[in-house]
Fold this protein.
Amino acid sequence: MTNATPSAEELDAQDPLAALRERFSLPAGVIYLDGNSLGALPIGVHERLTNVIDRQWGDRLIRSWNESDWYNLPLSVGDRIAPLLGVNKGEVVVGDSTSVSLFRVLAAALRLRGDRQVVVTERENFPTDLYILDGLRQLLPNMEVRFWDESVSPAAVLDGAGVLMLTHVDYRTGRIRDMRELSAAAHTAGALTVWDLSHSTGVLELDIARDGADFAIGCGYKYLNGGPGAPSYTWVAPALIEQVRHPLEGWLGHKSPFAFVPEYEPAPGIRRFITGTQQVLSLAALDESLKMWEGVSMSEIRRKSMAQTSRFIERVEAECKGHGLTLISPREGQLRGGQVSFAHEDGYPIMQALISRGVIGDFRTPNILRFGFSPLYVSFTDIDRAAVTLAEILRTDAWRAPEFASKQTVT
Ligand SMILES: Cc1ncc(COP(=O)(O)O)c(C=O)c1O
């Protein structure tokens, strides 16, 4: 290292977030670069779930709905997510998968737009977003889907549209869409915006109301570390919420669920986006993991994230030169989310070989090696070691071993 380039150890020593790593249970010998897919386990979750299972459920049984306030968990967990989105407490609710939450908000947005039943999205959007959109299109005979891509101005496709539905950070490349500019284009055209923040929340500094989101949803199991299948969050702009209705209105989104009346009346505010009984165990895990963010500055997170993704690009390009890796994430830090992706025609076996050496990233079809960097627990030393391991696998052709060729169900 020259004087101009600090060593990884120096960067770790100066890192104000470094101590947070101690609050995660990370297996020895593993460099975990997949927190953009499934976040690591926060140590407190184990004890919290043991308490919820043994004491709240086991001993107190149904009394825990009131005693432990299970009833309000979707909103109290939402209150922990609100600052990460840059919105106010009381505006976020948590429950169900992201796909289901997307269905609710998309249908709600279309309902608000009356006869403007056109949704604009990207063909490169995460597939579940497109599938949910298509499912809705099949239900609504007048609905039309239009695709936008960067080669044309958004205004060209937004004419007459009711909704612009986009994912903020692309799951393959990590490219950040300009929320403020695209939302403004949608609003000028008279459309509402629906943003999928799955790869944004917990790694970017967000201010979604300022940037023109009308509806937002996202995953709880990526940078928020809520555990496998953790419930998703939903936010609706306060100016719209009291008019909003959606097609999955269920009893726990009712104004008075325990009145048991046959007619639906929505609860005030975001509570109306609860459909059925909440996933108490999963919400408790997510609630516990979100405590990690207390006192953490999102600008510090973003600063570290950009430094880490830049360092990984720089180290991989220096160590692995001539081995066929092509960076497909934006080189400019401001345009890049918390991940770095490289294309390589043998991406799958290379990633398997890396995982076998304890460096865990993932593979996305057709040829993408994807590495996610959670600033809460990834160190600069991890980054340098991962780059060296990748270089060693490429240099020695270790990835050509037959055991790395067969595709597993989850890649
Ligand atoms: C951008 C995006 N949206 C939605 C989802 C799916 O979320 P869920 O499985 O909670 O429906 C994912 C999953 O990776 C995603 O990356």
Remarks:
- The mean pLDDT is 97.
- Residues 8-32+297-404 form a domain with the Aspartate Aminotransferase, domain 1 fold (CATH 3.90.1150.10).
